[in-house]
Amino acid sequence: MRRHLLGWRIALRLARRDLLKHRARAIIALVMVTLPVLAVVTADILIQTADVSPTEGISRRLGAVATAEVQIFEGRQRVTQGPDPLRDWVAGDELSRATTFADVEGVIGHRSKLAAPTSSELVVRTPHGREAVAAEQADVTAPLARGFYRLDGGRWPAASDEVVVNQAMRDRGVGDTLTIVDRDGTESSRTIVGTIVDATRRSGEVVVGLPGTLPRLTDDGMGQGWLVDGPPLTWSQVQRLNDLGVLVTDRHIASHPDDYPDSMDDGSGDSTTLQVAALIVVMALIEVVLLAGPAFAVGARKQQRSLALLVASGGTPAQARRVILAGGLLLGVAAAVIGVAGGIGAAWLLQPVVQRFNASWLGPFDVPWPHLVAVAAFGLASAVIACVVPAWIASRQNVVAVLAGRRGDAKPTRAFPVLGVVLFGIGVLMAIAGASGRGDLMVAWSAVVCVLGMVLLVPVVVSWVARAAGRFPLPVRFAARDAVRHRTRTTPAVAAVAATVAGVVALGISTSSDEKQNRESYTPNLVMGDASVTPDYGYLDPRPDRPTDWDQVADVVREHAPAARVSPVVGVGQTSTTSWVNVVFADPARTAEDEQISPSSSSSALGTDVVVSDGAQLPSLVASYFSADEGVAETLSAGRAVVLTSDASQTRLDQVAIHVETSDDDGPTVSTPAVTVPATVLYRPDDDVAPLRAILPPSVARRAGVPAATVALDVAQPHLTTEAQKDLQAALQDLPTPAGVYVERGYQADAYTRIVQWVLAALGAILMLGGTLTAMFLALSDARPDLATLAAVGAAPRTRRRVAAAYTFVVSFVGAVLGMLVGFVPGLAVTWPLTAEGYSGSDHVGPYIEIPWLMIAVVVLGLPLLTAVVVGLFTRSRLPMVARVG
Amino acid sequence: MNAPETRPVLELAQVTRIHGAGGLAVHALREVSFETYAGELVAVMGPSGSGKSTLLTLAGGLDQPTSGRVLVEGTDLTAVGSAERAKLRRTSIGYVFQDFNLIPALTAGENVSLPLELDGVPTRAARAAASTALGELGIADLADRFPDEMSGGQQQRVAIARAVVGDRRLILADEPTGALDSVTGEDILRLLRARCDAGAAGVLVTHEPRHAAWADRVVFLRDGAVVDEAGEPMAAVRS
Lengths: 886, 239
Ligand SMILES: Nc1ncnc2c1ncn2[C@@H]1O[C@H](COP(=O)(O)OP(=O)(O)OP(=O)(O)O)[C@@H](O)[C@H]1O
Ligand SMILES: [Mg+2]
Prior knowledge:
Chain A has 886 residues and is an alpha+beta fold.
């Protein structure tokens, strides 16, 4: 044991001295391990900070003082809840009578209580018009209400005509008086007496008034909650209250969810989460090990004479190995310490930036020590693992050869490439298994196996490249040969690039394919960029009993979007709010059989599903929905109706029977007699979502007794930003007959997905550059003696640049090509679990596969060329004149 | 003064070392036999490529003969495992090479105490032994210097100190003066001679007949075979 420790002491001493002596190399290795640790620590702290934990969130819901909130469920049913009713509760048997607060006090004793703040929507008038904002009502100055709002200026409301608002509300330009619009459209005003900061909302508008002073336009149907003080409730009290139909949010219980039973058990997610975490750790470990690998490999090579002397002095191979491992250990510890400390600092500095992009308030600065210990261990482990292969090679070197001044590399083992092929094969099989039903996690693990297989194959590929390089000019030949000679350095560098590219390609294919699925299963309501304006009464009740004043609406639209072409859409409108009109199309020969002519599904973004038009000016969506050879405009101008059907056999009809049904809640009330009109019936397959069911020329509409009126405005190319849309909406809501605007912005990639994609792309590029450039620097310093020899035989100074550029290109290009091939396996495989299952009922079964060729070209060809050129331009061109020994 | 002991410190018996195989086979040594006793310094001479270095690596157990036996203090190196041979290098055999003998990351003192520390001797005791060894060679003041802060001659003295520290009895020196000027070279040989006189057995590979004069005996190698073995060569040269 003692002897063992002694062995490590020498190893650590040697390693420490070596690192201090070769600082540049040590720093490269250190950076490679430190940066990931730092990045993960920073991200972890920021995520933990942004995440509002149960303990932190409870103060936002109970304020600073209350012990618990009890809420008598309006449904008059027993309930079963978990520790936090916000997360899980279910209703059960009905109760014989409504529970009162006295019943609650029967369980928890008499306590001070306060009506909990209620939340609802509220319509207010701003300079832009009418807008819906969040409203809360609470007795804000009561002791139990402490902690819900912070007064930032002014004072608390004291009367029913006073409110306080947050900064976001002030930013809508409301001044000191707030005009509130009640359900019936009547307006009343409140004085804004202060500015508050809400505990949760940061960027949304909030108005706070005393209880009962603001109209409640929405209601969650849960009933009034009561904040109570006093001692914490026990779990048995919670259960007794549940039996009375009362939900309980107790500060202590809700913030210790693990100590109490859930109402439903969902232990299923855990193993998946664990697997995903393991997967991420393994992949990151592989990447970091590969990135740090070259520096350690060069370090080990530089120490080979020392190690040979150590063996000549009686050291065992194990002792030699330990020297290299000790280097990894020291760097690993340094990286862990620096990374964690730096990460905490970086997170502290970045906190305000994250807050700016977050609509809710972040929680308190949270340093999750157990995570950080794990991340630090990860850093240490990756540094040590990065040393394992160099250490193993160093202990197997031919001591005699090294002492004689020759290279003492043991012959590369033939077994490794074979193992590489086998692993790769297993990886492909796993990917196939994952694609055919074992799921995306299996595919992800297959990526790990493929990458490991590839790492073992890199030396073989590099030696092929070197063999092929014989025909190329000197710098390329030199670089390729050097790459093979220094296999221990080249292999991890190439593999690091390859692993990165594999990840980028795999994720690129999967996200592109996923997005393709979303894009293709998205049905636009309008032509891209167009808008429609339809009646929208908001919370107005009762609704105005007169038809929408379209001229007024059009004026407002033109004012906000001067460039837009605004045209009315005429169609079958609803004449009353209590009944509705349906136009029925049928085969004139078979009207008795109740068989209608209709497409299988239709949307009505235009405010109607039966448009009336003479074909001269069809709404743009309608015009673009039909192909030119269907001749819709001509058909209409010839006085014929256009009717869509999902039954191909009906297209033979050249006239249809039309009648109009008017129904109310009790069923059909009036039906006009059927009128047969000339028509063209067009077929639409089942999976088509048509924007309408039929178009009638005005003459036909009149003859069939179809009530035609303006139902919407077709607003072509209004060029509205989302901000301008918000203002237009507010203005339209403010009209006597309010309307709403919809703007077709096409398929919107999820902002989150897009951010993830960008971060991944940037990370990939950085990793690739990092891997390539460190390998290049190490290669250049290794190549000093050779370059000196080149100089001695008359090579031009720029040779050094060219060698550097060529080496960079060889490493990154070979890596990128390998990585691309490897990345295709999981990338393609994962599209099955990801996109093959459409939403239920959909006929289209994937997989959707989209390969982002442009991105792949940039990564595989562009980045290597760019790096090589940059390296070629910026490397010092002076050749070393003296070969340094050692 | 060559009172031969009953058992040689180093004994090579019919040692053959062939590198490679078939047509490319190189016979580095052919059936070489010789002995070295305590207190004796044997010089090995011969043209370049004649197998001198090979002989030393076999004697030190860094390499294994194709056939024949190598015995160090009675232990057959060909019969024991590599761990046992490493142990012998820590306790019985000391090497001195032509140059770059010292580990650059260690001070002179640490270089000298290295074999002892590798053997598990507590650091303090190992250091004490090292400074004794350095003192005996007259370079105690160099103990805390790093190799790149010393001259070539100083480095070779440290290497000799390391080769003898811990009472090791077999010193294998492969052209220890090759990188030194002649005066310094003579100094080194004088030290080597002194160690052998103090009871060690030494094998000195050299090109220089003048250096061979320090030896008790000269073994001539040519093409891997011993061609001549001369006792007391040019004894007069030695003063
Ligand atoms: N690993 C090896 N593979 C093949 N041949 C080798 C190897 N090591 C040594 N040799 C050959 O063995 C022979 C003896 O080499 P050795 O190094 O012992 O010679 P030497 O007498 O020390 O020469 P020098 O005076 O030049 O140092 C030489 O022909 C050499 O080419
Ligand atoms: Mg030699």
